[in-house]
């Protein structure tokens, strides 16, 4: 009897190679950064940085090319805006400061008119305080300078003259407190004229004999 040949088992097939997952293309993060900084291009340094990062991202890798281009465009468009804002901002701040000063002087002018009306109705006697003018119908907002950052009822120091006939007419009656402005004051004289004096000019006015009473009272109110 013939013996059957042994069965030969075929070798197993080679394992299928596993392809690694493709990594995140380089340059994607830089493109995103360029886009985000481009959105912030109105802030002076951001537009320039967005432009640089966008160009580098385009040159080194094509990943997220659209974001890189968008960052470049935003940087180019918004950089002039940022430059314009940086130029105009000091001018706007100065204009705002001048507007506050104008309102402050207008307040003193209105207070002067209130003093004239008060003396006309009270036998030439001045009110003891500026707050007394509110009872005659003056708006209490006039006692506050828009430049005054301190929470107080009145921004102006006031000393009632002893008489309307005090001479000379340059006698000081009221002025802004020293912390309203840094290097000048608005003052009102007994003839109700309002002017601006530098710190040196104001000190010279206080040194005059006819302003000795005002100077002493102001020093007591403000301290040294």
Question: What can you see in these coordinates?
Answer:
It is a single chain. It is rod-shaped, with a radius of gyration of 39 Å. The mean pLDDT is 81. It has helices at 28-39, 44-60, 65-121, 199-206, 212-222; strands at 156-158, 172-176, 184-189, 194-198. α1 (28-39) packs parallel to α3 (65-121) and α2 runs antiparallel to α3. With 224 residues, it is α+β, with helices and mostly antiparallel strands. It has 2 domains: 40-92; 102-222, no CATH class. The protein has a 4-stranded antiparallel β-sheet with strand order 1-2-3-4. 47% of the residues lie in helices and 8% in strands.
Give the helix proportion (percent range). Answer: 40-55%
The geometry reads as rod-shaped
Q: Give the total of domains.
A: 2
- Low-confidence stretches are none
Straight-line distance between termini: 134 Å
Strand elements, count: 4
Provide the β-strand percentage band.
Answer: 5-15%
Number of helices in the DSSP assignment: 5
Q: Which sheet architecture does the biggest sheet show?
A: 4 strands, antiparallel
What is the average per-residue confidence, as pLDDT, rounded to a whole number? 81
Order of helices and strands: HHHEEEEHH
Q: What is the topology, as strand order, of the major beta sheet?
A: 1-2-3-4
The radius of gyration is 39 Å
Class inferred from helices and paired strands: alpha+beta
């Amino acid at each position: 009897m013939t013996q059957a040949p042994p069965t030969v088992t075929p070798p197993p097939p080679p394992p299928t190679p596993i392809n690694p997952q493709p990594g995140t293309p380089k340059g994607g993060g830089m493109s995103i950064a360029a886009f985000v900084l481009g959105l912030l291009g109105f802030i002076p340094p951001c537009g320039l940085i967005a432009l640089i990062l966008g160009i580098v991202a385009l040159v080194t890798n094509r990943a997220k090319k659209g974001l890189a281009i968008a960052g470049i465009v935003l940087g180019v468009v918004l950089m002039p805006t940022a430059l314009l804002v940086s130029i105009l901002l000091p001018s706007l701040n100065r204009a705002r400061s001048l507007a506050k000063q104008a309102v402050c002087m207008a307040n003193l002018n209105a207070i002067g008119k209130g003093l004239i009306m008060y003396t006309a109705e009270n036998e030439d006697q001045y009110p003891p305080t500026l707050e007394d003018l509110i009872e005659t119908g003056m708006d209490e907002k006039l006692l506050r300078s828009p430049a005054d950052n301190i929470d107080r009822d009145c921004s102006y120091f006031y000393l009632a003259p002893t008489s309307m006939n005090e001479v000379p007419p340059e006698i000081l009656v009221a002025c802004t407190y020293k912390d309203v402005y840094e290097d000048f004051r608005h003052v009102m004289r007994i003839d109700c004229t309002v002017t601006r004096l530098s710190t040196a000019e104001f000190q010279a006015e206080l040194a005059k004999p006819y302003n000795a009473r005002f100077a002493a009272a102001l020093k007591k109110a403000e301290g040294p």
